[in-house]
Queue: 2 jobs
Job 1
Amino acid sequence: MLIIPCPWCGPRAEQEFHFAGEPKARPVPAEQVSDQTWAHYLYHRSNEKGAHRELWSHAHGCGRWFVMERDTHTHQILSTKAPA
Amino acid sequence: MTATRLAHGGNIDRQKPITFTWNGRVMTGFAGDTVASALLANGVRIIGRSFKYHRPRGIMAAGADEPNALVDLTHGVRHEPNARATTVLLEDGMQISVIQGWPNVDWDIFGVLDLFHRFLPAGFYYKSFFKPNWGFYENAIRRMAGLGRAKTSADRRKFDARVDHCDVLIIGGGMAGICAARAAISAGLNTILVEDRPHLGGRLNWCGRVIDGMPADQWAQQIASDLNCRVLTNAVAFGYYDHNLIGVMETVQTSDPDCGDARLWQIRARHVVLATGAFERPLLFADNDRPGVMLADAALCYVRHYGVLVGDRIVIATNNDSGYESAIGLAQAGAEVTVVDIRPIAGGIQQRAEMVGVRVLPSARVIKAIGRTAVTAVDIRTNRGSHIRIDADILASSGGWSPAVHLFSQSGGKLRWDDGTLTFVPDQSPQAVRVIGAANGTFDPAASMSEAIAAINAIAPEKVSWSLPALSQTEKSVAIEALWQDPDIIGRQWVDFQNDVTFKDIALAASENYVSVEHLKRYTTLGMATDQGKTSNVIGLAIMAQLTGREIPAVGTTTFRPPFVPVSLGAMAGSRFGPLHSPLHQLPAHQSHQKLGAEFREYGGWWRPAFYPRNSEDAFATIQREAKAVRAGVGLLDASSLGKIAVRGKDAAEFLNLIYYNELAKLKTGRLRYCFLLRETGVVYDDGVVARLADDHYLLSPSSSHTKGVLDQLELWHQTEYPSMQVSFHNLTSAYATISIAGPQSRTLLARMESGIDLSDQALPHMSLTHGTMMGHKVQLARVSFTGERAYELTMPAGQGRTFWEHLMNLGQDLGITPIGIESLSLLRAEKGYILIGTDTDGLTLPVDLGMAGPLTAKKVDFVGKRSLLTPDAMRPDRRQLIGLRPTDDQFVPAVGSHAILQVDGTRRSIGWITSSAFSPHLNHTICLAMIEGGRGLVEANAHVTIFDRGKTTTARAVEACFFDQQGVRLNG
């Protein structure tokens, strides 16, 4: 179980958090992008071994979402910061 | 000759005798005994039958590595079907019995299987039992093989759980561990020491060494007595998880029948120091599984630590110096000891052994154990190549030591092969962990102590103020010599005792090219028993290396996974079982429903009335009655679990318009709209009614089970995509109770509440809401229906839910008021074709599939999921669409999930399935909702489809997904 440093609350246990996968930039205007671009946004994930960006929310804490960089191989947490 | 209890010595209390039974026979042990030491002291040699061949087996080890001595243990309410006798402390009144063997362990009828061993090689399951299929044989084989049987009754005991944290967690209270603890305390570190045995000191308790001028066991007890930190004994660290979280199971002795015998700890440590020691490996020779064959260090442990001399003529086979340590201890206790060493010369310890009368045969090896139910003699090949037989009642072996790297490996650590000590030792780990002493392959006592200090120094530089004790002069040692399997030995040689894996099985795996370690393990089951191969893994790998001409590191190791030892499921569960496992929400008027005799069920995390049976009514009759009562008069439904999320702010309208499928910016204040919330994939995530309370104030009503999910979605979109919008969300669900009043008499009932609210259809039409005061409390009254009848949702403070419910029930008696549950609601809404998300829809359902295409064309702004509705897939005409089905047989109710099928080339092809089905008491026939490919077209063509229900086929007509009051006359009044 990870110890996650919430950018607002500090280090807390993983069970206080929700995970929502890799943050993806929404292609806009959505109606004008190609089917392929849209499918890529919906379904393609980089699945990195090593440093990987993820969206987490401190669901049972402050309720804020943030971007966490985590090493998927060692589970080392490299950074957490507010979403851009 | 059997084992004897010595008159003195050992860490047992001879003043405290303990009575227990073994297979019904009453026996006596002493406080401090393990089950194994007590059984040995009582002369028990056969402790069980082996897993596959039913061969008699005896106790082999003295700790967690024991592969044979699994017993059935009952002690009051406690029952363990596979207790490891070597680690369970003896308690008064324990009933211990064998888990295998019929009619009894000494004479097992299935022992005949052993005669057919050549027909039962590794993988014989896959080679023999495939015709007609495995299931044909499964029962018989499972009866013959396998471990103990668990009780089927519930275990009512509550197990304790603790959470803790520290600067440094030291695992293992042997020499390295207690030195590290002393150093850590002197450095001012917050320290926890965990040891799986009752006493600190580990092997110091029986090795016979001298430290600081005193016997090692006394030195260890002196250190232990002034360790000023938390010390958990009888506590085994079983799992090493991410970010230095360690799972520890502490065994607790309790006489309380409601209290579990184990306590689970989750300890988070800044630094972990592993001082887990090492496990001795046995040597291979023919029939090395006979009762009386054991590990040399175990024999020494029993004599010095428990005062049990396991035999009086003992042969010790060894390839390293530690076998002599055992020889000395056993000879000093009065046994006649012969050491059979494969090496021409041993270290200085050989002289000391010979001084106490130990006979040493150099350059010799044990080739076979003689005796069937007990060792009687040992066959030896001497240095001159001749064979001799020595009478013996115990044959102990020491094949070197394997560091206990399990926890290190679980931490993500990699192992490295060390040729000098013939061991896998820890290399690198991504976590903050240090390994010291024997666990690190450091077997020299002085070096081990230095490692302990160095580890703490690295954690707290220049803080350690404890200095090393003096060791007695270390003597010259001679290195271990590799001996994995002697190709000259014929006869069966066991590698994994618990799973009955022999050398021959590994050779078979090698010859069939199962040479990778992962294949070897799965094909032969080597190391897959509950002892996780503590005595067998390294030997198995080494034999595979030898057979395939590779180096041992090239064969590799398997990954160690938690738990290190079996952990009680009760301890894992703690108090989280029964009603506390996943506590359900209760409705504010819960007690009122109880009084009305409601039958409760779980709906999306809420404990809600399913229906309210009267007298001896069955479920079907109750649901039909409740449904009829709503359409005839008035029904009352507790809808308090319905979500209530307030959305407020200057940009609330614009934001909701971006999030919801339906147009919400143009919704008038005081009006409601039924809406879909989509995922970006276009799939319908939730449906619900949205109310506009003011220009900048909306109230959402998500499904009961989706409230949290909808709130998460709103926050996610707001915080990540539209952070500049001024809008906030507040979950009010538990602050209010909501009662749904449905039926033609609903307005009459509400009028009696004397609120002054204008209930006329002009003032309060369908899909509108208003506020007022009832019974002195502010209420919200929304006219909205999920039954197709005139209906109102009355919302009041949660604390008033019960009062309002009971008051309404009283007021409506002459109107035939009926409390209704979720099941009749579900029938009523199906008659109207109102969907339930997740029941009538799935993870592929788009709004157009449900017949709601309007907003996609009418709404000009972008919204979540819109782009996905414009893809070619979303516009396919043959998508599954929600329609109604009316079975030809009016009375037959097809099961939900029954498929609609087409016959194509003689095979059935599914074109969709039934999502809801019920018998309608108002229409007097069955109604179904179904998702069918091209369903709209079938309805227009008035076509029939074939339904396949549990092997039977029947037909049904495709109809509109609304069976009742299609014009909505009853709804609008």
Note: The longest helix of chain B spans residues 445-459.
Job 2
Amino acid sequence: MADKRINTNINNTFLRKALKNFATAYPIARAKAFEGIDFAALRHRIAVSKLAGLKRLPELIAQFTASAEKTGAIVHFCRTPEDANRTIHGIIQSKNADFLVKSKAMTSEEIELNHYLEARGIRCLETDLGEWIIQLAGERPSHMVMPAIHKNKEEVAELFSKETGSDCPADIPFLVQKARETLRSGFLTGQVGMSGANVAMADSGAIALITNEGNARLVTTLPQTHIALIGVEKIVPSLDEALDVIEVLPKNATGQKLTSYLSFIKGPTGGDGRELHIVLLDNGRTDLAANPEFQTALQCVKCGACANVCPIYEIVGGHVFGHIYVGGIGLVLTPFFHGFDKAEEILKLCIGCRKCNEVCAAEIDIEGLIVDLRDKIRKPFGQKFMFGTMMKNRKLFHAALRAAYLAQKPFQSAGGRIRHLPMVLNRETANRSLPPIAETPFRDLMLKRPTTPTLAPKQEKVLFYSGCLADFVYPEMCTDTVESLEGLGYSVAFPQEQSCCGIPARYSGEMDAAREMAKLNIDVLLSEEADFVVTICPTCTMSITHDFVKLLADDPLYAEKAKRLAAKTLNYSELAARKIPPSPPLSKGGETAKQVVTYHDACHLKRGCGIHEEPRRVLRELANAEIKEMSDCDKCCGFGGSYSIKYPEISQEVLKNKLSNINETGVGILAVDCPGCKLQIEGGLEASGSKMRVEHTATLVRERMR
Amino acid sequence: MNETTVEKFRVAAQMIGAEVHSCGSGLGAANAAVRNFSTSNELSSLLQELAAGGSICASTLPGDLEAHLAGLVVSDRSTAADATLCISFAGAGIAATGSILVQLTDPAERAATALATKHAVFLRSSSIVSTLRDLSASLKAQLLGADTTYFSITTGPSRTADIERVLTIGVHGPKELHILLLEGE
């Protein structure tokens, strides 16, 4: 079912083009809107004040209610969507009205208000252009800020022709004018007006609306009765905090410095007969606000930026990537607002690239919350055995990988790579070939190496944690790591008992198994004296430096050990960069010409560990390379570990975008710092007939030493 | 208010699609693209031209401005739905975004500024501030005051990008925003 929708949307050329154009235009507009503004400081302020507010949410609600009532507004607190629908219906009935004219409110979508009212004989008219389009089409918004981004002008023209009974050409200015004329009578005859609110202020009881079209001002003005339906998390203490939200929202949502209209409404204005009803919607929010594990989700200001930058949203759109709230934060809010049954499928769709975290207006660790939520959903059959029994047991897991070396043989082509898998796995190799599992894993190669000589004075010792993919698929990458680090003056050892870092388990929601794997590796890596632990897989780096600490924070024995290990664990590029300039120089021969490379930032290295300068320094200073940057160099390649097996169609579409950016540079070498990115991109390039080399930075440094 | 702030306001407002008209011989004269007015007659003819034969409605204006419009036929605000031009007064301007702050507590005035095809707003250049933050003290005073209130910060004409993300002007609110900049105090 979900698979079918995914494929339908992947093959929807208009949707794909619209989303791709937006994905290209958005970062440019956003950067321009934020010129001269310290985004990091601004969003940090929002995060701090929002979280403080959530921790005393019942108090803020009470204060807002009292202030709003003092202005003459009537405040209704509604615990459930049913409460809110019934309350709103009651207000409309008390006015003997049967026509509600609305401006955009996601809360109204959340409680499916139109459906409820229309079943009771009340006509609802959406006046936001995008909302009206999807109302006419009988659909849900596919973006929080641009609800009809999935519709093209031809579809809109058809909907408008049907609605107005006159022939509408697919001409955008004409269609906008048609909407103006058609909806005008709705504003003038609507008996009750409805809006949402972007922010509500507890000290004054005022609300603020941020809009572009001007419809919100009309629906809050022309009818005598105005209903504002507001999620309780929108309440902030005062104008000071509201101004931060107002400052960030349009810039992050659409790259506008400010929208056309920013309106503040305090109380029912205009005297006799005018009423302002504020319907405060809880629907799980006060419980969520009191939930220390997930409360930060409610810091969200609903700008939609997490969808704007999401590589998966860009491929499948909001009707797949979300329920009613879409994008990264939509995945997080859905289980709390609409139930875990609605969230099960969509929570798996995140590839874990953390691009959303980078732009979130409220500094929410969206990706982290998605991963933590997977622990709460039903797990697929067999997964418990896979992680709980097999991967936790290093010998069993490694024996399975060695067996796979033999099993893959029939599918290997001339160069050793795997191009076609049997039917059941065929989707996996449609647009990329796969590297084989190596005959001799790196761990066995290390056994054959002469034992490490005693340390020279002041020589630093490094324990190498290779990660499974490099160990079993790219042993030569591991050898290059050891030899290049030795060339830079380090002494390197490989603890044989190391095992999987547990990320696949964590990403699949098997937190207990992940915890066990963390403990095992902590014991192995702390038992041998060393100055550093080095990894060549960013996911392993992120796992050791962040996830182990988080997973074991409450463990009396391991919490401290996890922190100690995290403090001395570095990614390869960080460790190598410490030796710039190298002494003695790396190159044995004379100076050779610089080789031109382009660099792909691995998601987990850049956004998981905050590392993006060191790899470039290492390439320039240690590998004698000149870097020609590609566009979107830090955008996901579509690998995502098991993601590329679970959702091969999506993964390969994300890969296509990456390949076209790489090919545009016209260089012959792509440098990466991640074996997973290498696997994905190399496979894509190979399948498309490209001869480009994809190499880990360690390999390029090692080559320089020859 | 210094000249740079006013100039910044003018540039930002024009960039977002508003038209800025200057009164007097001050800043505007240097800019050939700006249409100026310096007498009541010139002002009246500018406004009449904007109304293009359609009806005009106006909010309550400060006395001196009211006097300038003496020669203009202004219809009752209850007919705002049919007005081509609505004239009102902005209490402040914001240079960073080219925005204007308009008091809209009276629903009839609010309707007029929201329904008319064109919106012309007087703004004293002395009331232009650099950023929205600079207005926070006065906005706060209003929000925390005893009276109910409704005000809007307007930035350019009504716009939408809801069809194929193509920016289109004038979906529900005014299609044109004219800012009539008054020099001096």
Note: Residues 3-182 of chain B form a domain with the Rossmann fold fold (CATH 3.40.50.10420).
